[in-house]
Amino acid sequence: MSSKLLDHICRERLADDIWELVNVHSPTGSEKNAADCFAKMLCKAGAEVEVDRRLPDSPNVVGRLTGKRPGATLQLAGHLDHIDVDHPAPKRDGSTISGRGSADMKCGLAGILEIIRVMKDTGCDFAGEILVTAYGLHEAPHGDFKGLLNLINDGVIGDAALIFEGAEERALIMGKGQSIWNIRVVRDGDVVHELRREPQSDALIETTNRLVRALIDKNASFAAADHDYPLLGPQSIFIGQVHYGDFYNRVPPGSDAARDTTMAS
Question: Is the Cβ–Cβ distance between 186 and 254 less than 8 Å?
Answer without folding.
Answer: yes
